Amino acid sequence: MEQTTLKIEGMTCSHCESAVDGALRNLQGVQDVQVNVAKGIAEVAYNHSEVTTESMKEAVEEQGYDVK
């Protein structure tokens, strides 16, 4: 299992946290997600043979947030 931290811009509240968390957890291969609105990050544990960081980025961006 691998870990990555996504820097996410535009999160301001618990709804934002839930949207990002749900988008990432819906991806096959994502094992765990910890979203921190105050820091603007999502820490993701995942199986690199099932999901890419690019697909994680796209899933978050589809929710209306920018990933750096």
By oligomeric state, this entry counts as single chain
The helix/strand class is: alpha+beta
H-E string: EHEEHE
What is the rounded distance between the termini?
A: 22 Å
- Second rung of CATH, namely the architecture: 2-Layer Sandwich
The share of residues in helices is 25-40%
The count of DSSP E runs of length 2 or more, i.e. the number of strands, is 4
Shape field: globular
Tally of structural domains = 1
Strand order of the largest sheet: 2-3-1-4
Rg (CA only): 11 Å
CATH top level assignment: Alpha Beta
Tally of helical runs: 2
Structure description:
- With 68 residues, the protein is an alpha+beta fold.
- It has one domain (2-67): Alpha-Beta Plaits (2-Layer Sandwich), CATH 3.30.70.100.
- Helices cover 31% and strands 34% of the residues.
- Strands 2-3-1-4 form a four-stranded antiparallel sheet.
- The N and C termini lie far apart (22 Å).
- 21% of the residues are buried.
- The model has no long low-confidence stretch (mean pLDDT 98).
